Amino acid sequence: MKKIQISLFILFVLSLATGFAQSGKPLFTHAIGVQFYTYRNSLQGGLGPVLDSIKALGITEIEGSTPKNTTAEEFKKMYTDRGLTMPSIGWDYNMILKDPMAAVTEAKAYGSKFIMVAWIPHGKDFTIDDAKKAVADFNTVGKILHENGITLCYHDHGYEFGPYGDGTLFDYIVQNTNPKYVSFEMDIMWTFHGGGDPAKLLYKYKSRWKMVHLKDIRKGVANDLTGGTSTNNDVAVGTGQLNYPEIIKAAKAVGIKHYFIEDESPSHATQIPVTIAYLRGLTE
Length: 284
Description:
By secondary structure, the chain is α/β, with parallel strands linked by helices. Helices cover 43% and strands 16% of the residues. It has one domain: TIM Barrel. Strands 1-2-3-4-5-8-9-12 form an eight-stranded parallel beta barrel. A two-stranded antiparallel ribbon has the order 6-7. Strands 10-11 form a two-stranded antiparallel sheet. α1 runs parallel beside α11, α6 runs parallel beside α7 (169-176) and α9 runs parallel beside α10 (244-254).
């Protein structure tokens, strides 16, 4: 009975998007993806039911990595059988430094064109020395990936927006990495939480951004440079602090290739349908 109720709720919320979008030309027309980390606490019941729920939402792309106790071949068959693709995979910073070719092998097993790294190891504060090391490491690893047909993308996390020179440490990273070897995936919520302006940054470095994480943060939560906040502060896109119409316009203008919803909240099952309805209901 609970599954039936959840399914009916999803269908109801998604049906709202059609009605909302009728008043003008749809703004968000891209395929919708999801970061598989969203479902990290939902895998006890098996991969199949999670993938089924993703398919039921109309999502067609996932970003993730090989789940525990599963091979890449098994996971790929499971999601391709449901009409899903995985254009991007995630790798740990230290692991990809240690064995970049293992990352290449995994990406090719999935047919993924992007490998994203989501965290630069650092102490309490992210410093210029951390940024300089990351620049050197990203240029080295990015070159290896590029030579094997894969693009390295760094996923920002908010702590990089501390001031440096005439800009921020994030500016330093972008400006000192080789555009041929290093691209970026914007986590829209973390960018905002660190004090950045997502739309302006998309335009500022328009040739460097390839993917985005779609997420929003609860109203009233203050910005900081920690790169962290309670998962309960993740809210459905369009219900939090971010100006998503402006951000989606910028993302379209700079040619973002993949859009992944990431909802770390315990309420993701009810929030993601609201997010999708909101995105599909945006009009120009």
